[in-house]
Amino acid sequence: MSFSPILIAVLVLGVTGAVFAVVLYFVAQKFKVIEDPLIDEIAEVLPGANCGGCGKAGCRAMAEAFVKQGNMDGLSCPAGGPAVAQKVAALLGCAAEAAEPKVAVVRCGGSCDKATSKNSYDGLQDCAFANSLYAGESGCAFGCLGLGSCVKACQFDAIKVNPETGIAEVDEDKCVACGACVKACPRGVIELRNKGKQNRRVYVACNNKEKGSIAKKSCSVACIGCGKCMKTCPFGAIKVENNLAYIDYNVCKMCRKCVAECPSGSIHAVNFPQPVKKEASEPAAPVNQ
Amino acid sequence: MKTFAMGGVHPNDNKISTHAAIEQFPLPKQVVVLMNQHLGAPATPIVNKGDKVKTGQLIGEAQAFMCANVHSPVSGTVAKIEPCKDPFGLAKPAIYIDVEGDEWMDDIDRTPDIKKECDLTPAEIVAKLKEKGIVGLGGATFPAHIKYSIPEGKKAEYLIINAVECEPYLTSDHRVMMEHAEEICIGISILRKALGVPNAYIGIENNKPEPIRVMQEMAKNFEGIIVEPLKMKYPQGAEKQLINAITGRRVPSGKLPIDVGCVVSNVGTTFAVYEAIQKNKPLIENILTVTGKMLTKEQQHNYQVRIGISYGEIVRHAIGELPPTTGKVISGGPMMGKAMSNLDGPTVKGASSVLIIDESEATRGEESNCIRCGKCMNACPMGLEPYLFSSLVNNGKYEEAGANNILDCIECGCCLYSCPANKPLTDEIRLGKNKLRMIMAAKKK
What we know:
The structure holds two protein chains of two kinds.
Chain A: H1 4-30, H2 37-45, H3 59-69, H4 81-92, E1 102-106, H5 127-133, H6 149-153, E2 159-162, E3 167-170, H7 180-184, E4 190-194, E5 201-204, H8 212-218, H9 228-232, E6 238-241, E7 244-247, H10 257-261, E8 267-270
Antiparallel strand pairs in A: 1-4, 2-3, 5-8, 6-7
Helix pairs in contact in A: 2-3, 2-4
Chain B: E1 22-24, E2 30-34, E3 44-45, E4 52-53, E5 58-61, E6 70-71, E7 76-81, E8 84-85, E9 91-92, E10 94-99, H1 122-131, H2 144-147, E11 158-162, H3 172-179, H4 181-195, E12 200-205, H5 209-219, E13 225-230, H6 239-247, E14 262-266, H7 267-279, E15 285-291, E16 301-306, H8 311-319, E17 326-331, E18 338-339, E19 353-358, H9 359-362, H10 375-379, H11 386-394, H12 398-403, H13 414-418, H14 425-444
Parallel strand pairs in B: 1-16, 11-12, 11-14, 12-13, 15-19
Antiparallel strand pairs in B: 2-10, 3-5, 4-7, 5-6, 7-10, 8-9, 15-16, 17-18, 17-19
Helix pairs in contact in B: 1-4, 3-5, 4-7, 11-14
């Protein structure tokens, strides 16, 4: 007598459970989404930062793109680098895309002492906002504003505004070249360039497209577009357009002749060994590679 | 007495330069005429280096739809045509003219006689406004010929003349009304004819009793001009607020004044319209106030200046060197004006004032956290929620801000003025509007 309510409950629940299990089984069979298990495997291998550096909406979208294409042509994960590329290639069963590793480069040398402040900005601390208002504290309408929109955009903690120079600086070890800072910079100061052998790079640290005389007024290290570097370069890697020199990193052999030739010192060569002797501050001979 | 219904603040009006009569500013050695002095595309230069130009000669032609003609403000030789940095340090296409004498175009009537009759048809009036490069002088520099070409299917019922001058410090409209009341009334009659409206209302805030009296006296001699004194409240001079104050109508979100049958014109513009239509004079001069609490009574000025003179020259002529404790030199009023970083930049058509303020006045208070007190909401004349936009914009949710009508913001600065936490609310909203517009433009592609 006292057991019957329990029995009824067990029976009712058991039967409904069984019925739903059968229904769900057939529904699951009917509406099954067939997905390549490879997508999951590749998504597992990818960094999972969803930085968008590959141009896809996130890591899973990238994994789908890999599987859809079946090889790695034109697809690369900048955040993962060669290690991830190897793993993905192994899963896909194709050759690893040997993408040249890149790094974000801030093309501005107008530090506080070189591009002195002519006014002080106390508005919203955001580069896009300041850029919509005026030319900036130095008067250069092309250089780094130093308000840190790129810092906010970076998910890898790889870019900081140096309080001494007032310019954004990239931490080469942390930077994965996802390009988030490039998109965040309202002035297009930041560029992704080849990391180069032993991290050595030669680039024009200026973005000023004004005439030399005007550019010089706001910044002492501005590129004046004189074209001396273009004439000096033995490899034809330098072009001058809109009063601004640009070094093509795919052509540049890093001989650094242009660095010595530049009258305003706007070409930077980084991570080269410091000359030991004092007189060697002269242009170094082309580095044998 | 009427005023607008929603929001608003009451900053001290500081009208300390009302006593200074309009003076003609002397001609400089060189002027720089920017090609985009108006809302829209820049004009195209039609003179070459070395050309001789006369005062009032067309030098920049409007080739796009949203564009206005630019005329030479001086006579002389074109020195060069190349970009010039504006007062904010941004390079704009410009024509440099070396001044030689002051020889005007022959068709411009320079006599002081007042010409009352105008027998042009509405279409001819609009065409002449376009030819003479007239733009709205209230701040937005909207090309006048576009404003007065009423789109088909719409009808203007009210012509509203904006003589509110609600920005603190500015007195150029005040002086123009005191000295050119008759010309203004003729200008209004011309605009009334162009639109075919029965009545024109001149809105003047009650902190200007003298101009109210002068305009009321003058309006008696004209048909269909009604002076409407308004209770003082900022931003009454904003187009939508003025329409609300005078007609009680509200311009719906995303619509234009003409959708509620209104056309609003600044009082300075009506004077320019008079000069253009009756005297053939293109828009080459502005009335510009030089003011600030730091300046003595003698240093306050209202100048009639040719466009293209640098701000630095105006400051030097008016007060000599800038006082050592100068904090900001602002083009426009303290609420909506912009601080200038490059005083060598030239004046443009819409310039209304040079305001010099002290360091202590210029610095912003220290920012603290929002406590959701809602003062910004109460102050907002558009009925928006600035504190909400602030957090949405700071978190990058621009489209959600758009859904809350961030684009309705008129950037009057009431929220920032009323915020006890000194949050840069107006800055954040401007940033949000810019970003949202970029997103919308990208989506259209």
